[in-house]
UniProtKB/TrEMBL annotation:
Protein name listed in UniProt: EAL domain-containing protein
A family per Pfam: GGDEF
PAS domain mapped to chain residues: 12-85
Organism domain of life: Bacteria
Domain EAL as annotated: residue spans: 314-567
Naturally occurring in which organism (per UniProt): Psychrobacter proteolyticus
Coiled-coil intervals: none
NCBIfam families referenced in this protein's UniProt entry, alphabetically: GGDEF, sensory_box
SMART domains assigned to the protein according to its UniProt record, in alphabetical order: EAL, GGDEF, PAS
């Protein structure tokens, strides 16, 4: 016999009553007609009514005719299940006496005491649990930076729309151009502000017929339109592009306080014209987006079948380029640099050509963007560097000591083997480091600032000469001259084209020449195409130049013949 069995009945009842009163769960007891007999303190606190008010009242507190239709249905369902099974449970939301919403889980049990039926209910407030569940669901379905639906939600919304819509559905994919560069320049907080500001500006446009605006992450967005005619969306997208003409001003705490302009690439597909399924529409919009990005960005492209052939061509080109890097099909062509005073060849700039097995000799315009896109820049640079240094060795043995410039960009400089490769080539071919010049564009300095600076300093210490290419075309050339160890400044041909008559061009070139003298740097003028241009530059004090007036880029054997001819005439 347990100790509980020896306790008098009155004490048992008092103990049970006390325990019920102290339970956190709300307890209530109903009679066979679902009228209140008793409630504990937790129940009173939860729904806001005292026991004395509730006793004798029906479960819904008020007569059935005063309840909503939904509440009446719930009460009928409770009564039916208790009669049939003696048990019922339900998750539902209710409003308490004070108008506060409560998410509840309630259980009812039918219990007989001395052949009298009672219903004991337990009500548990699930609001905090449901709130947590909702927060988790929000984390899983919405981007935390922008609050926009994520890719999963967007695809679900699109799928639902395709099932229900009798109109045309337009799916738009867009990226912010140069986002990685901007993020690197602005830092993490600035990049986040850039994205949030972009979202705010798009939402301000209140684009007509926009059904969903989604953030896939980073600079990756999607929009969904539902319209009678897909062409109606063209105006909305034009409005979006016009928005990008307004600058985004960064916070002073970021890496720069310059105004930054959004440029976006946009790809568009349409249901039912382009596809009937979500995956097909998404794929085709992304193909159109990729097409825009491959052609310079900052544009809108609607999907059509020509993109498929262009994509196939791109895959074929990638395969051919990889074969070309493996088989050594890239060759340097040498454009001479001349002394403007004497006409003597002082060196060469090496320019890449592709000796294609079926299409002949191709200039960079036909393949250089694909080289960059497929991350083959270092392979191309290595192949050219090997051939150039070997050619320098041959010329050295022939008694010629002209230098050769080779162009390099950030993709080459960022490669961990770049410096060792250059150093080893010079050593193995017994070529003096000062005979190899490397030209760097301003864009390379912007994209990978710290790494480029380290590489340039290492090359300079090795003895390789350095030139800043296209000087004056970027926004920070002067700061680069102060920060990096350049030996040469190359004046861009855009400042030479009308130097004979254009006072502005004349003044800019004169300023560059004076700056070079002050910094103890040499200057090379690019793009000289007339004798008059040569004469003006010579009178201004420029000593070295290159351009088609002197010579086009030529093959190694032709360059050798030019050196031999020059040597014989001296």
């Amino acid at each position: 016999m347990s100790n509980f069995d020896t306790i008098p009945v009155s004490i048992k009842q008092q103990l049970m009553s006390t325990l019920c009163e102290q339970l956190e769960d709300a307890i209530f007891v109903l009679d066979d007609n679902l009228r209140y007999l008793a409630v504990n303190a937790s129940y009173e606190l939860m729904i806001g009514y005292k026991e004395e008010f509730l006793v004798g009242r029906p479960l819904g507190i008020y007569a059935a005719e005063f309840l909503s239709e939904a509440e009446q249905l719930i009460l009928k369902d409770i009564s039916k299940n208790l009669d049939s099974h003696g048990f019922y449970e339900l998750d539902f939301s209710m409003i308490n006496r004070y108008g506060e919403p409560i998410d509840c889980h309630v259980t009812y049990r039918k219990i007989y005491v001395e052949q009298t039926a009672y219903h004991v209910g337990m009500l548990r407030d699930m609001s905090s649990v449901i709130k947590d569940q909702k927060q988790v669901a929000h984390l899983l379905n919405y981007d935390q930076l922008t609050g926009l639906p994520n890719r999963k939600v967007f695809l679900s919304q699109t799928s639902d729309m395709l099932l229900d819509s009798y109109q045309e559905v337009v799916l738009v994919r867009l990226n912010i151009d140069r986002y990685r560069n901007l993020a690197s320049l602005l830092g993490p907080d600035g990049a986040n502000d850039l994205i949030k500001n972009f979202v705010e500006e798009v939402e301000k446009l209140k684009l007509h017929n926009l059904r969903s605006f989604s953030h896939f992450g980073g600079d990756d967005f999607a929009l969904l339109f539902e319209v009678k005619d897909a062409n109606m969306v063209r105006h909305q997208l034009d409005t979006l592009m016009q928005m990008c003409e307004r600058p985004f001003s960064t916070d002073k705490s970021h890496a720069t306080d310059a105004n930054i302009y959004y440029h976006i690439s946009v790809g568009v597909s349409c249901f039912p014209k382009d596809d009937n399924e979500v995956t097909g529409l998404l794929t085709k919009a992304e193909k159109a987006l990729d097409y825009v990005k491959q052609h310079g960005g900052d544009d809108i492209r609607w999907y059509d079948e020509t993109i498929e052939s262009a994509t196939a061509g791109s895959l074929e080109l990638e395969s051919e380029l990889r074969t070309a890097t493996t088989e050594g099909q890239f060759v340097p062509y040498y454009q001479p640099k001349f002394s403007l005073e004497t006409g003597a060849i002082t060196g060469f700039e090496a320019l890449v050509r592709w000796q294609h097995p079926t299409r002949g000799l191709l200039k960079p315009v036909h393949f250089i963007n694909a080289i960059i896109a497929h991350k083959l820049s270092f392979d191309l640079f290595s192949q050219l560097a090997i051939k150039i240094v070997k050619q320098l060795s041959v010329w050295q043995q022939q008694g010629f000591h002209q230098h050769v410039c080779i162009n390099a960009d950030a993709a080459e400089f960022s490669h961990p083997d770049f410096f060792d490769m250059v150093s080893t080539l010079l050593t193995e071919n017994d070529v003096a480091a000062h005979q190899l010049h490397i030209e760097v564009t301003e864009s390379s300095l912007i994209q990978r600032h710290d790494n480029v600076k380290k590489q340039l300093n290492s090359l300079r210490e090795l003895g390789v000469r350095l030139a800043l290419d296209d000087f004056g075309t970027g926004y920070a050339s002067l700061s680069y001259l102060q920060e990096y160890p350049f030996d040469f400044i190359k004046i861009d041909k855009s400042f030479i084209s009308n130097i004979e008559t254009d006072r502005t061009q004349h003044a800019i070139v004169k300023a560059i020449l004076d700056l070079a003298v002050a910094l103890d740097m040499q200057v090379v003028a690019e793009g000289i195409e007339t004798e008059q241009q040569r004469d003006v530059l010579l009178d201004m004090g420029c000593k070295i130049g290159q351009g088609y007036w002197f010579s086009k880029p030529v093959a190694a054997d032709v360059a050798t013949a030019m050196l031999i001819k020059q040597n014989c005439s001296e």
